[in-house]
Structures are given as C-alpha cells and as structure tokens.
Amino acid sequence: MSADDPQDDASHFRRSPTGPSVAPPRQPIDRPVARPLRAAGNLRRLGSVLILILLLSGVGVRAYRDLSRPEAWAYWKDQYYSPSLTSSLIAQVSLKPNIDGRPALAISGRIGPAAASWFRDRLDEAHLAAGDVILLSSPGGDLNQAIIMGEVIRSRGLVTAVGVADASGRIKPSYCASACVFVYAGGKTRYGLDGSALGVHRFVTSTPGRDPVADTQRTAGMVLSYVTRMGVSSATVEAMSETRDVRWLGTKEASAMNLITDPLRAP
Fold this sequence. Notes:
By secondary structure, the protein is α/β, with parallel strands linked by helices. The chain has 2 domains: 41-82; 83-264, 2-enoyl-CoA Hydratase, Chain A, domain 1 (Alpha-Beta Complex).
C-alpha cells in the first residue's frame, strides 16, 4: 500500500494531488478539570492552629508558675474562696447625738492578701457616698493591702470609726490594731469612739531572699509617706517603731498625733 493511499493511518500526513502535504485535523485533547489549590490553605490553617497552641501553652505555663507560688494561692483563696474579712451594710449609724445617721459599712476580721480588691467590691455594692462611714474592727494583717484600703477610703471621701454596730445602728466599742490603723487613717474624718482602741507596733518585713535591712527601710519610707499624705503626725510612726508588742493609744494620745480627728462618746 502506497504512502499516498487515502486509507493510510490518519496520523500520517496526507498528500494533496495538486499541492503540498496537509496535516490531519487535530483531535481535541481531554484536559483534567482544574481543582482548587487546597494544600496551601490547609498549611496556613495548620500553621495558625500551631501558633495558637503555642500561645495558649505559654499563657498556661506562666499561669501555672504564678499560681504555684504560695502567696498566689493565698490571694485567690482570700479573694474568691474564703475571704478573711467580713462586711455588713448598716442603713444608719449615729456617731453624734442629735445628728442624722449615715449609712455605714462595717468591716471586721483579719486583713488578708486580697483584702483591698475584696474591699473595693464591697464598697461598689454598698453605694456609699462621701461622708458615709467605714466602721472597723480588726487585729491587723497585710500592711500593703491596708494602705491600699486607706487610699480607697480617702479617694471616696468616707469617714472612719472603730467599733461594731447592731442592726439598729447602735455602735459598741471595738479595737483596730497593727495594719488596721492604716485603714483607719484613710478616713477624711477619723472618729474616736469612747471605749474603742487603736493599737500600733513595729512592722516586720520577712520576704525570703531579700535584704531585711533594705526591706525595713523601704517599708518605713512607704509608711511615713502614707501617714503624711493622710494628715497623721509622724509621731505615730515613731510610736510604732518603739515596740514589737501592741501599744494601745488612748484617745488623748491618738488625738495629739492627729490620728483621731474627732473624739466622741458612744451614743
């Protein structure tokens, strides 16, 4: 069979009787359907997930380190689980005869490591206004927390007194010692209820791994700065430094130090 035979395979060139060779018509080529490129998108999503996991792991490790410290657990316990302080809102207390009573928030107990935060929450719930009363009864506790509580009292224009009150608003004498005195000092007016007592003593610093002398000096500077801002005489700090045991200040002595600004008798 000749190469020019029209029966030849269509894949060969055919010759025209009067012209050059002509290629056969090209057959359509079946192409695969284009699919979206998912690999890059999947890799990006996987990378984002890995980054998120690493970030969460870092936060978790940091939180574990923070909460593994004894003081951190003590803070959380005092703030959320078992607060060392208790409070009660009293509709009216009369600190002076023939003067209308004011709402009061009575605080009692030991000042714990989360006392300041707890105290702010109780104040917000009580909706006290400037001139309302914080009634204190406490043996003391955390010095730093007590100073913050005093600052909060002063910033809200509240007054302070030492005592306890029943539901009718009748006040009975009580005591406020050690760090509690700094809370009391925050009052814009500091009432001295006859029979109540203010107790001071030398503050002690015991942070492990730190120079106790340097710590004591820093604490002394902080305390002196605070009482000066509150309008209390530096003689109060001197009285604190004189003894490790609690020294109970009489109304006359505390008034001379300007710790008590308004002595009064129980109604």
